Amino acid sequence: MSTASTKQMVFNDNYWGPPRERQPELQLRTSTQTKASPLTYSHTIGRGEQTGQGFRYPVAMVVNPRTGLMYVANRSYEYRIELKRISICTVDEHFVGQFSTGGFGDGQIFWPRGLAVDKEDNVYLSDEWLQRISIWSGDGDYVGKWGTEGSGDGEINRPAGIALDSQDNLFVVDGSNHRIQKFTKDGRFLAKWGSFGSGDGQFNFPWGIEIDSHDNVYVADWRNDRIQKFSPEGNFLMKFGSHGSGDGQFNRPSDVAVDKDGDIYVADWDNDRLQMFDSGGNHIYTFLGEGTLSKWGIAKLDSNNYMWNEREVAWGLERVKYFEHPIAVDVDPEGRILVLEPYRTRIQVYTKNK
User: What is the pLDDT of residues 182-228, one digit of tens each?
Assistant: First the structure.
């Protein structure tokens, strides 16, 4: 018998054989920033699950400021449409339930993209494939839908991010029409602005949207690699960002959020990071991620001990703490900053330092 075969054998449900040799660790990303971080990592929510307590390719989230419930839209896979769903949980990691499923009928979803909650606790979801806005009660009961595909006033083409203002008017990022449209929450067209291009007030496949406490509108202008800010009436106010990987630059910004102090957070999707700016668009800090195992993840590992063994022999786990293509960012009613990662099926939670 060879020397290698006399080594202690390792057995679990996924592997039978000699201990695996560790591979060289890839170089880890490090920050060159010298100033203190304005945010402190708190915890992680999520784990990869086909259904139930966990997420499957989550793409959008929103927290209801009145109930504290968080809704997470799971896009899942096209070949497993029954796994598409909206999860209900809290930022403190309490799983409540889920509703909807994949499909083309009323109350079903296919390519979910944006989420919003109105003052009556109804949940709104934009669907890029079905070209519509669907509505549920806060408990997940189907309420209705609206939306017509096209490029005319009130028509939509690949709706992306959505947000409600202080009057419960719904602003829709009309992605393939390169514009923003404003509707009543039951779908009556009110206004629009924007066109294709790179000038002030123009867009190139915009994606994420945010409305601050003054009803100003912020748009993540995806292919123009910038953030634009508008008045509630759609008048251009400012812009910041350019293509690149340096501080204050973006590579496909996917979402934007604003806290009560006016500080701005941008999910810098293809740079795998979160950036923070002041109200004037000046760069404050760049975050690479600090994710740890969630309570849900630990509970699953505890119920399947072989998974702990797999983690012991895995290499490169240090990299898992970093952001990977963050797609959404939000600020909850307590001021915590939430960063959603589809590929890592989780939300990293940060608190702002006083």
Answer: 999 999 999 999 999 999 999 999 999 999 999 999 999 999 999 99
SS3 for the chain, per residue? Answer: CCCHHHCCCEEECCEEECCCCCCCCCCCCCCCCCCCCCEEEEEEECCECCCCCCECCEEEEEECCCCCEEEEEECCECCEHHHCEEEEEECCCCEEEEECCECCCCCCECCEEEEEECCCCCEEEEECCCCEEEEECCCCCEEEEECCECCCCCCECCEEEEEECCCCCEEEEEHHHCEEEEECCCCCEEEEECCECCCCCCECCCCCEEECCCCCEEEEEHHHCEEEEECCCCCEEEEECCECCCCCCECCEEEEEECCCCCEEEEEHHHCEEEEECCCCCEEEEECCCCCCCHHHHHHHHHCHHHHHHHHHCCCHHHHHCCCCCCEEEECCCCCEEEEECCCCEEEEEEECC
pLDDT in tens, 243-267: 999 999 999 999 999 999 999 999 9
| Rounded Cα–Cα distance for residues 31 and 171 (Å) | 36
- Geometric angle at alpha carbon 324, from 323 and 329, rounded to 5°: 65
Quote the CA–CA distance of 157 and 177 in Å, as a whole number.
6
